[in-house]
Design a protein that fits this description.
heterotrimer, A alpha+beta, B mainly alpha, C mainly alpha, A: alpha+beta, three-stranded antiparallel sheet, 5 helices, C: mainly alpha
Chain lengths: ~180, ~170, ~200
């Protein structure tokens, strides 16, 4: 913290730092407002990485946000106990995509085959999930919605650019967590 | 995902990725707006406005890795505009629900929090801004210069004067 | 003409066919053949075979090619990516030493891709000769993936390895950085990492 020797000021700063939480719905309101932007913005030329299912993606994105607060703790990720013997671990993946008809997981562990690891609808509305047994190490992965819309894991702690102009998420099985 | 990555992806058409940036900065910038404007409704209005403007102007964000300070400049502007529009007396209203929002007594007491709010409200806005940015949010003077457009020396002076005035006001109160 | 030359010729031909047959069976990973056009599959396979001969891990190269195929990348683009990655694997191995494990080499290659230097990797190895660098390298990678600049990430890693930090401290570094990022870190991920690193080193 920027230091001021005055204890009064330090006390003031301490109190001010402890502010009440901003309304979590604010994110949803911002995104809604962005989506209902005047038509001319949407017509402005820009490079689209996504397919024409972009609008579906926006709907998915809003759904992802709205559930962000109570989903914050539930994310994909490496196991927290480090196996020292190279044991495989079962990792649960999930994605919030209420308007999707299908969601698949692709990654190093399944040779990036689109049909190999479909997610199923979980009990919670809009939530797709699958459990996968993974060998220890670095695992690159992504989700594909409805066969052609590639998304990274919004809650992966690490996303890196892939070598093909897009991005991939990665997780570490059995590493520092 | 870094700020730079997120900005790049949003500009490439992945609108929903903007939410990551909103979530990332919401609390910290919300705190700044709250202390600048003195009440929650105005703070959230300024914050929401700043995020939306940030999205619409995103192509103008030159240094994508410093999206945070770029957005803060927008927010600081919104706060200034909103503060001018509102009556000055808003600052002196007491909002006990904010003071106990965390549901506990942190040993500072309700009265102390209200006095701080009151004292902050009595600072000249640019001094309040400099004080909050430097002492509460830990921005360096160099970064603040970029956010506010003022010189480093002017900002140091404002922050110092803010401290002096707060000390005076709060010592009077207790 | 006596039957001998014919037999010899036949034997040589058979041996050649066997040799070529065996060579051919090793040459093409069926996964590549199934997903890339044959020219690209052959070109990628050459890279994979060269990597194997050099003692580098080959699975990451195949995964990369398959990823590109699924994403609809062109053959040349896939080949460029595979070639680049093979180079990074080789550089990582050179920096980390010939006896590095596959895990160390792969992490090192990713780190180079994200901006680490071969010099930095070498120094990390020098701090912990003969010990497994899996966790420090993974931490280096994870720091950069979270937005810490390569310079800072390498510097903090070197401090930790230099202080002979135990494995648990690397995990704590990441967890506390994640917490700082979620709460709205003061300053940058790099600044937060430096502070957290110093605290961890200062602990017994």
């Amino acid at each position: 913290m920027a230091t001021d020797p005055d204890p009064m000021i330090r006390r003031v700063v301490g109190t001010l730092r402890d502010a009440p939480e901003v309304d979590p719905d604010l994110t949803g309101r911002v995104m809604t407002q962005i989506r209902t932007a005047p038509r001319s913005w949407w017509l402005a030329p820009r490079t689209l990485w996504l397919t024409p299912l972009h609008l579906l993606g926006v709907a998915v994105g809003v759904a992802v946000l709205v559930t962000a607060a109570w989903f914050a703790g539930a994310r994909t990720g490496a196991g927290t106990d480090l196996p020292s013997d190279g044991a495989r671990q079962v990792v649960q993946f999930h994605l919030v995509a209420p308007d999707a008809n299908s969601v698949v997981l692709v990654g190093d562990f399944n040779d990036w085959e689109l049909g190999a690891t479909p997610l199923r609808r979980s009990g919670r509305p809009g939530v797709w999930t699958v459990d996968v047994s993974l060998a220890p190490g670095l695992v690159k992965y992504a989700f594909v919605i409805d066969g052609n819309r590639w998304v990274t894991d919004p809650y992966a702690a690490a996303t890196i650019s892939d070598e093909f102009g897009g991005s991939a998420s990665y997780l570490r099985v059995g590493g520092p967590s | 995902m870094t700020d730079a990555d997120a900005v790049t992806r949003v500009l490439a058409g992945e609108v929903d990725v903007y939410a990551v940036l909103v979530e990332r900065y919401r609390q910290r910038f919300g705190r700044y707006a709250l202390h600048m404007l003195g009440n929650r409704e105005d703070a959230e209005e300024a914050l929401q406005d700043a995020f939306v403007r940030g999205f619409r102007a995103l192509a103008q964000c030159r240094d994508r890795a410093r999206f945070g300070s770029w957005l803060l400049a927008i927010l600081a502007n919104r706060c200034r505009t909103l503060a001018r529009r509102r009556a000055r007396s808003r600052h002196e209203e007491l909002h006990p629900e904010d003071a106990v929002a965390r549901g506990g007594d942190f040993g500072d007491g309700l009265a102390w929090r209200e006095e701080i709010r009151h004292a902050l409200g009595r600072l000249e806005p640019r001094q309040r801004e400099a004080f909050l940015l430097h002492y509460v949010d830990d921005w360096s003077y160099e970064e603040m210069a970029q956010v506010t457009g003022a010189s480093v020396s002017a900002l140091k002076m404002r922050a110092k004067r803010a401290c002096d005035r707060l000390r005076l006001l709060l010592e009077e109160a207790f | 003409m006596s039957p001998r030359p014919a037999l010899v010729r036949g034997g040589v031909l058979a041996a050649m066919a066997l040799f070529v047959g065996v060579g051919h069976a090793q040459a093409q990973d069926p996964r590549l053949l199934g997903r890339l056009d044959s020219a690209s599959a052959r070109a990628v396979q050459l890279q994979v075979d060269s990597a194997r001969l050099e003692g580098l891990p080959t699975e990451p190269l195949i995964d990369l090619a398959l990823e590109g195929a699924s994403k609809g990348a062109t053959g040349p683009r896939i080949l460029a990516a595979v070639t680049r990655t093979r180079t990074q694997l080789a550089q990582a191995r050179a920096a980390l030493g010939a006896f590095s494990t596959a895990e160390e080499i792969v992490s090192g290659a990713y780190a180079l891709r994200l901006g680490a230097t071969t010099d930095g990797l070498q120094k990390i190895r020098e701090q912990r000769p003969g010990r497994n660098l899996g966790i420090p390298l993974a931490t280096l990678l994870d720091l950069m993936a979270r937005g810490v600049t390569p310079d800072t990430a390498q510097a903090v890693l070197l401090e930790l390895t230099g202080a002979d930090a135990d494995d648990a401290k690397y995990g704590r570094l990441l967890r506390e950085l994640d917490r700082a990022l979620q709460e709205g870190t003061r300053g940058t991920p790099s600044g937060a990492t430096v502070k957290i690193g110093r605290t961890l080193i200062g602990e017994p």
